[in-house]
Structure formats: structure tokens, C-alpha cells
Amino acid sequence: MRRTVVCFIRITAANLVGQKLLTNSCPPPISRVDLKDYSPDELVAFLSGLGKERFRAGQLLRWIYARGVTNFAEMTDLSRELREDLAARAFVSDWSAEVVETSTDGTRKYLFRLDDGQTVETVRIPMEAGRTTLCVSTQVGCAMGCAFCLTGSFGLVRNLRPSEIVNQVCAARKDGPVQNIVMMGMGEPLHNLDNVVKALEILYSTEGFDFGTRKITLSTSGLVPEMLELGRRVRVNLAVSLNATTDAVRDELMPINRRYPLKELMAACRAYPLPPRGRITFEYILIRGVNDSLEDAKRLVKLLHGIKAKVNLIPFNEHEGSVYRIPERSAIEAFQVYLLNRDIVAVRRSSKGQDISAACGQLKGRLEREQKLLPELSPTPAKR
Ligand code: SAH
Ligand code: SF4
């Protein structure tokens, strides 16, 4: 059985800790850096600044990401001098979840409290054959303001740093292996492109996590220039939240469409360099009376012409305050059958973890309503 990957997260963290020196005669204060904020290349450059060889970066990546060690003292194949040097200038952040909720279907949602009191959600989704997909967030909130999306209604609070993206994976892996990652949690990954690319480079590094490029999917609402830049900078599977087949409807649902209308978006999809044997996933939320007609299905087939595509049909996940409704089951089926009959791979995705509000932004919304996790309630920062 196929499983849906729809999740949102909320994060906060400020990981560069200032280390104050005590007297004026001392050299200027040194800020300790979180090594998880460095891409593998940046780690090499950092070590070379300490007069250390390139291969030391590989050793550090192995300790931090492959073995999950965050205390320099335990990194026994590094010299004592290097370990002391590192401890003086750097640290390795380490998260534990503040809240973990497990759904009856096995979906598990983690909520992490970050240094500035914000929170971030990560969702662990059991898949077929005992595999696990992790849905990670890339921003706290989101600036894109899609009309159907709870996260969009929060607005953007801030970008996540690379460490805050990869720490979601590090923390979730303490609960068991993770085979696939989807950047489909809270936020628009391409609105935080530099940090997302660094996080991808860390996730791909062979000495560290060693994820293959086909194991990670990034989902975007369609920021066209950033899609093209992403393709130039790194290989990653792409998912595009399409959700409409005319500019008029997409303009209403997704304000980003007014800047990059369907024609430009589809051209960017055609130009996107996919990993070998890859396809672009088009996410299509079916909303009653808005985009669920057979006319829409027909237009969708035309839009996808010539693109290596698969379509995820996601019945709208209703949430409080939303004017939109889930379509009739018959409309969903008819839409799917129309695509299948035209040889388009169309998978119906049912939302997992309904009982723990595992869909986009819903846990955050629910918990804040319940006053459980408001920042003013003496936050416990994610453990370092
Ligand atoms: N910002 C990115 C990634 C996060 S959103 C993007 O938009 O692609 C992840 C997915 O959740 C998107 O495909 C979005 O369309 C979907 N989504 C948001 N709100 C939803 C809802 N209420 N019901 C079903 N899917 C929703
Ligand atoms: Fe942001 Fe994606 Fe939600 Fe749109 S659907 S508001 S881009 S998180």
C-alpha cells in the first residue's frame, strides 16, 4: 500500500553560541560555530584554517553523521590537539524531541523546541516493506500564503539553518533507520535555497549520511528561477505542488502563480535535470468544486504532455477555518481514472497520521490552540 507524505514542521534554533572572554586584555571573543551548519566543502575550509588536512573533514563527517557522536572527546581517531582546538572553536548540536506523538497507523510526529523558542515538526512515515520516509521542514512558517494551507496562514517566521534541517534527520534516526527524505514539511524549500542546498550536500556526503540522490525529494510551490538554480547546483528529485490547471484558479489558490504562471512553471519543469530514471512528481490537492472536475483532469493531461511525470492526488485535508472541502469520493475516483486511462501514473495519497494532526502545520496549529507549546511557557531549547 502506498503511503502519503504530507507533513509540516515548525522549527526554531540559533546555534552559534557566543563564548564571552573575561578581560579586556584578551583577544576578541571567539564565536563557536555549529559544525552541522557547514557543508562538507565548508568543513574542509574550516579545518584548513586550523592547518588541518582535508581527510580530517571525512573523519568528522563520519563521527557526526554516520555514528551520531557530538562530543569531540569521543572522536578517538583525532589527535588530542585537534579535539581541543575544535572544542574551543566549535560545537556539534544535538536535538531531542520535546513532544513525540505516534499515530495508530505508525506515523510518528516529533516536535522540536529551538533556541529562540520556536518549534519545528518532523514526521516519520512508515512505508511499504518496512521502509521509512522522513518529512522535514525547511522554514518556520511560510511566506507563500497558499489559500488552502495552514502553514501559509502563519506567515514566515524565519529560515532554518542547515544544522536545523539536518538535525531533524539526526534526531529521527535515533528511533530507527530512515531510507527516504521528503522536504515537504513546513516552509518553501526554494525560499531558503542556500541553506537547503547545504543541507542536501550534508545528507549526500558519502562519509556521513550517504543518502543517494534518488532518496531525497524536494517539494516546491513553483519558484521558477530558484527551480532552475537548484537544478544547476545539486541533483534532487523534484515535486511540484500544482493544484490547478488554469492560471485563474492557481492565482486564487497559490499567489506565487501570479509571479510565475503555469506556462513558465511547466517550462521550468521541462528544463529541470532529473536524476537517472527520475520523474517529476506533481502534487495535486483535490478541492471540491474548485479543481476536481473532468475538465481539470483533461487540462492536466495537456499540461503534463512531454514531461516525465507522476501525479499524486491528495484529497484536501480539511482544517478549521478553511472554506475548502474534500471532494466526493466519486469525483476523486473519476479524476484518477481519467489520468490512468491516458497513461499517466496517478497515485491517490491518503493523509497519514490523521489522529496526530500529521498534515501540514496542523500539529503546530492544534498545539498552539491548546496552549501547550507557546514560546512564553519557558522553552527548553533543543538539547545540544
Ligand atoms: N512549500 C512546499 C512544500 C511544503 S507543502 C510546497 O508547497 O510544495 C507540502 C505539500 O502539502 C504541498 O504539496 C501542499 O500542496 C500540500 N498541502 C498543504 N496544505 C494541504 C491541505 N490542507 N491538504 C492537503 N495537502 C496540503
Ligand atoms: Fe507554503 Fe507550501 Fe503551504 Fe504554499 S503549500 S503556503 S508554499 S508550505
Explain briefly what this protein structure is:
The protein has 384 residues and is of the alpha/beta class.
How would you characterize this protein structure?
This protein is an alpha/beta fold and 384 residues long. It folds into two domains: 13-91, Orthogonal Bundle (DNA polymerase, domain 1), CATH 1.10.150; 99-370, TIM Barrel, CATH 3.20.20. 32% of the residues lie in helices and 18% in strands. The chain has 13 helices and 15 strands. The protein has helices at residues 40-49, 55-66, 80-89, 150-154, 162-173, 193-204, 224-233, 247-253, 256-259, 262-271, 294-303, 329-341, 362-369, and strands at 17-19, 30-34, 90-91, 99-102, 108-113, 119-126, 132-135, 139-141, 156-159, 180-183, 216-220, 237-241, 280-286, 309-315, 345-348. The strands form three sheets. It has a ten-stranded mixed β-sheet, with helices on one face. The chain has a three-stranded mixed β-sheet with strand order 1-2-3. β13 (280-286), α11 and β14 (309-315) form a beta-alpha-beta unit. α5 runs parallel beside α6 (193-204). The two termini are 38 Å apart. The model is unreliable at 1-25 and 371-384 (pLDDT under 50). The chain binds S-adenosyl-L-homocysteine and iron/sulfur cluster.
